[in-house]
Structure formats: C-alpha cells, structure tokens
Amino acid sequence: MAFLSDTLARVKPSPTVAVTQLANELKAQGKDVIGLGAGEPDFDTPDNIKEAAIAAIHAGKTKYTAPDGIIELKQAICAKFKRENGLDYEPAQISVSTGGKQVLYNAFMATLNPGDEVIIPAPYWVSYPDMVKLGQGEPVIVEGKPELGYKITPEMLEAAITPKTKWFLFNSPSNPTGAGYSRAELKALTDVLMRHPHVWVMTDDMYEHLAYDGFEFCTPAQVEPALYDRTLTCNGVSKAYAMTGWRIGYAGGPKELIAAMRKIQSQSTTNPCSISQWAAVEALTGPQEFLGEWVEVFKRRRNLVVGKLSAIDGITCPTPEGAFYVYPSIKGMLGKTSAAGTLIENDEAFAKALLEEAGVAVVFGAAFGLSPNFRISYATSDAALEEACNRIAAFCEGLV
Ligand SMILES: Cc1ncc(COP(=O)(O)O)c(C=O)c1O
Predict the structure, then answer these.
(1) Does ligand 1 come within 6 angstroms of the Cβ of 244?
(2) Is the backbone of residue 74 left (phi > 0), alpha (psi -120 to 50) or beta?
(3) Would you call 150 helix, strand, or coil by DSSP?
(4) Whose CA is nearest to atom 7 of ligand 1?
(5) pTM of whole model > 0.90?
(6) 246: left (phi over 0), alpha (psi -120 to 50) or beta
(7) Pick from 66, 56, 136: nearest CA to 96
(8) 266, 102 Cβ separation under 8 angstroms
(9) Of 120, 182, 254, 400, which has the fewest CB atoms closer than 10 Å, so is most exposed?
(10) Contact (CB, 8 A) for 235 and 203
(11) Residues 104/233, Cβ–Cβ less than 8 Å
(12) Ligand 1 in reach of 205 Cβ (< 6 A)
C-alpha cells in the first residue's frame, strides 16, 4: 500500500516559494542576489493596524473564535463590500480564513467532485490549478493573448465551457501579469456566463486596490448583478495592507456555500488567528489614505521597470494596469546561449541562468502556465529594481 496519497502526486510545490527560498539560500551563502520573486509588498504593516493587534492581545482576545470569523470582522467586510464594490452581503454570507489562499481552497474543497472542471485563464496564479487538483477537479486552462496583455476574450471563455464546468476563476488585476479587465471587458465575459447558468464565478480580487493610471477596478457581481447568486467574491488584507504574514482572507457569497466552507474550516484550522482578525477589523475600518501613497510608489516602480525592460532587445513588456508584477516575454531570446554557456531553450533555463550568472531571482513563466516569459515582482526598492534591470540588460546583451 502506498504511503502518500495518489492526489498528492498530481500536485507540485509552489514554484514562487521555491524561487524565494533559493534566492535566500544564495544570499545566506554570501552571494549578491536581488530577489524579485516574492509576491508581497515591501512596506511595513501600518502602525494603527499593529496597535489594534496589540490591544487585542492585552484585552485577552486570544481564544478560539467562531470558525469563519468574529462578527465584528464580518460586519467590517460587509461594509467594505458595500462601500467599495456596491455589493450587499450580510454577515452569514461572509467567510474569513487564514489568508486568501485558504478561502479559495475551502471553496474548491466544498464544491468539487471528481471530474468537475474549473476554467482558469493563463497565465495564472501558481496555486489555482494545484488547488483544483487537490479537490479532485480538472483545471481547464485558457491561454490569454499576449496582444491583449494576456487577457482572454469572451469567445475563448465560451469555447472552454462544457456541461462539466463548475467554476470560472477570474483574477483582475492579475498575478502574474498585472493585467486588469475594464468594466466593458468584464461585462463581455459575464454576458457569456449569463448564457450558462450552471457555471459559478470565483473572483479573486486580491489586487483590487493596486491599480494605476485611473484604472477602474470592478468585480463580476457588481458588473452583472444577475450573477450575484452564483458568485464567490474573494479578497483579503494581505496585499493592500501589507499584511501577508497575518494570514487573513475573506469572501462573500451565497449562504449555503459559505456554510459548506465553514464546515471544511471547522474540521481543519478551526478559525483564523484571533489577533489577526482584530488587526483586519482596523485595516478595513481605519484610515485608508496611505493606500494612495503606496499606489503612487508602485506606479513609479512599474514605470521604471517597464521602461528599462522594454529598452532591451528581445524583450517585450506590456504595461500592466495593476498589482505589482510585470510579465515580459523573452521570445526573442530563445535559442541563444549565455556567457557561461547555458542554452536558453525555455524560460526556466533563462531564469536559472539569470540567477546564477547575474544574481537576479525572477520566476519563470512556465510556473504560471504561459511561456516564454518571466515574472518580476516590483514590490522592492527603486534602487534594487534599477540595479536588477541593469543586470538583466547586461545578461541579455551577453547572449549570443
Ligand atoms: C492572485 C492571488 N490570490 C490569492 C493570493 C493569496 O493571498 P494570501 O497571502 O492572503 O493567502 C495571492 C498571493 O500571492 C495572489 O497573488
């Protein structure tokens, strides 16, 4: 009898975590490495949020909570959905979990049966297909068009839908491309879903607040209210409030689905950290002004990176609408050889040679299901970005 489960064999470890770990190991060995792999803001969690957590500890809010969140946080989330997205949810429609990741995971575990299909536009956040596989489902990958900033069209969505489709997983602004769907582009997709009443929408709005140049963020149930009853609107405090380590994510959706997710959570992690939940109440109800300042910083960095990478012969780099990633194509570099003799046969070879020869850690495109590309997270200092781009340019110039 095999000790490890068959399901595990279908799943791979997170490549973004692996790249970050490798870069840290090289740094620990004294190598000069600039890590552009990690998907987290370099800002510190704002002080008012930290203070709320400390106050919660002193007030003894250190015990188990209701499995899917304290009522105060659920109320704050309902107010956020109303204020920012025009969506009406009541607390019984809210699920709070240990990070946005667990929200998505619970939803898949609660709904997937063997063979159920989940449509995932590529390039995708690395965890989506593996979570679907852990739930015995089948990821159906739809590759975005490079000329559309890697977005998909309504025709592509329509063609991917089958009687077995359970979910359409939507993520805008996207990790890894930063691409954001305009209201009209999203409406065109929701129009398709209106013709297929058996398909549910899981929308991952994690990068909602990180949008540039006046891009208007919108979410499916807002653009098409008729989809409200079959939409799970997922979000979290990790990215917008620089709270990745606090592990709080949340979702709003139909009560039956939320209750099913609660059941999974009550038998796995019991509840998200009580202290982090109080910190998240402060994040959602406290001052929001700092967000505008952070967005300006990210925008400046995006422009710096897009400008520098676009100037490199053989690299094409679309200007994304949001998040803190760019996803340049290295098509023009395939088949060349690096100064140290590595054949650039694919994006994985490119990223490996870039790390070993130039000391820049990026994540290769195949990890996100669309090649030949690499992802840069520009959530790091201007100086580090400037130096990293110079190194990438020198590395690329050295390819023959
Ligand atoms: C698109 C997307 N969704 C969800 C998550 C998970 O966020 P959390 O850290 O809250 O689990 C991430 C984190 O990288 C992400 O990029």
Answers:
(1) yes
(2) alpha
(3) coil
(4) 100
(5) yes
(6) alpha
(7) 66
(8) no
(9) 400
(10) no
(11) no
(12) no
Token pair for 340: 């140290």
Q: Centre a 10 Å sphere on the Cβ of residue 156 and count the other Cβ atoms it contains.
A: 18
Ligand 1 mean position to 260 CA, how many Å? 21
Tell me phi and psi for residue 201, to 5 degrees: -115, 125
CA distance 58 to 170: 40
SS3 state at 361: strand
Nearest ligand 1 atom to alpha carbon 103? 11
Q: How far is the CA of 321 from the centre of ligand 1 (A)?
A: 18
Q: Is the pLDDT assigned to residue 19 strictly greater than 80?
A: no
> pLDDT tier at 82 (50, 70, 90 boundaries)?
very high
> Rounded CA gap, 226 and 63, in Å?
40
Q: For ligand 1, say whether the CB of 206 is within 6 Å of any of its atoms.
A: yes
Ligand 1 and 329: CB distance under 6 A: no
Length of the chain: 400
Exposed e or buried b for every residue in 131-149, given b needs 16+ CB within 10 A?
Answer: bbbbbebbbbbbebebeeb
Mutate to test the pocket of ligand 1, among 206, 284, 375 (most ligand atoms within 8 A of CB): 206
Which of 175, 207, 241 for mutating ligand 1's site (highest number of atoms within 8 Å of CB)?
Answer: 175
Question: How much is the average pLDDT of 290-298?
Answer: 96
99 lines ligand 1 (CB under 6 A): yes
Closest ligand 1 atom to residue 323 Cα is: 16
Q: Distance (Å, rounded) from C-alpha 27 to C-alpha 198?
A: 50
Q: Are strands 200-204 and 325-326 parallel, antiparallel or unpaired?
A: unpaired
Q: Is the CB of 238 under 6 A from ligand 1?
A: yes
Residue carrying the six token digits 């190991």:
25
The mean pLDDT of the chain is 96
Contact between 232 and 251 (Cβ < 8 Å): yes
**Could you tell me the pLDDT band of residue 203, with boundaries at 50, 70 and 90?**
very high
Angle, nearest 10°, between helix axes 274-285 and 71-85? 30
Q: Atom 14 (ligand 1): residue with closest C-alpha?
A: 39
Atom of ligand 1 at shortest distance to CA of 244? 9
Please give the Cα distance from 35 to 380 (Å, whole number).
Answer: 9
How does pLDDT run across 114-168, given as a tens digit for each residue? 999 999 999 999 999 999 999 999 999 999 999 999 999 999 999 999 999 999 9
